[in-house]
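As a warm-up, study this chain.
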Amino acid sequence: MKLDKKIETKARNNFLDKEQYLSPYATKSSDAIRLNEQQEDIRTPFFRDSDRILHSLSYSRYANKTQVFSFKENDHISMRMTHVQLVSKIARTIGRALRLNEDLIEAIGLGHDIGHTPLGHAGEAMLNEISRKELGEYFAHNIQGVRQFMNVDNDGEGHNLTMQVLDGIMCHNGEILDPIYKPMEKDKEEFLREYIESYIHLEKNKKYAPMTLEGCVVRISDVIAYIGRDIEDAINLGYLKRSKVPKNIRKVLGDNNKDIVNNIVLDIINESMDKPYIKMSDDVFKALFDLKKFNYENIYSKSMDSEEYNYYKDGMRKLYDMYLHDIETKNTDSVIYKVFLNSQNDYYLDNTDPKRQVIDFIAGMTDEFFLNQVRNYCKEDCKIS
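Now compare it with the structure written out below.
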């Protein structure tokens, strides 16, 4: 169906109307760059990117991917789907207060973790070990997210997201905490150089800065969204008592997710209003830094014991070997063909190393799918050591 020309123009202008109120440091729709040029519709480019992400099959798999705790019988424990929605909402709150582009923020926020493996960061470490051995390249979920949207999703066609959204996904690393976040200007060539370089230089990848202030907002919002929520999940599961949160942290941020989110968000708005950067006060930054360290020592390091980790690691390795053998022997009855390769386009199949195809497949699995594959095909061969 086509809109009447006058209606189409009015609708497009309605989408653009709010941009006249944006900060001079905000990213405008006119700044949007797609790696492959295409005709836009009534939606602004970043708004359209959010739609493409939401409608992607990869997005639907967030619902059964680990945030921190895997296979826990508790309906209130966060999954990856919850996390990305919280990141998007927190970042949009900051963005609206600072008059930034909320459409761009939403797209980055919803898409930033699309490259996450089953079993969260534990699964990422396992797949990285395989990638290093088999391809001589690092596997990192932020880089896999860019690859997923550019080369894997949509049957290998990708979604042709804007460079600003892809860059925000690539540079969202919530593991690195900085006192100040400043955007770094990039063109298409610089973005692609950083992306390709990330497979070889993991440390450089961790330090890349987003090209937009909106990307900076999502980067810090990633930390804000998980840091307090993970405490609530750990308390829910009996891993932690609230009283264990150190007094110096409680004094500045609080000891519950509501207060932690509220205090950090308000502090960022207070420190960043009408500035070309995103910043926290010294007290809040130190408290957040200390809280992150506390979480690592008391939550993340205990989310999976060594027995479980070795079982899943052994299972992932054996699945990798099996799928690769199936490709090499053209075993079209294999699940990697039925679920993944049979729907990929010729360009993907002809130009992607079979080892990379297997890594793409495993990276996209949900927790349940991965566990069922291990149970079905490894059986007693997967050792618990």
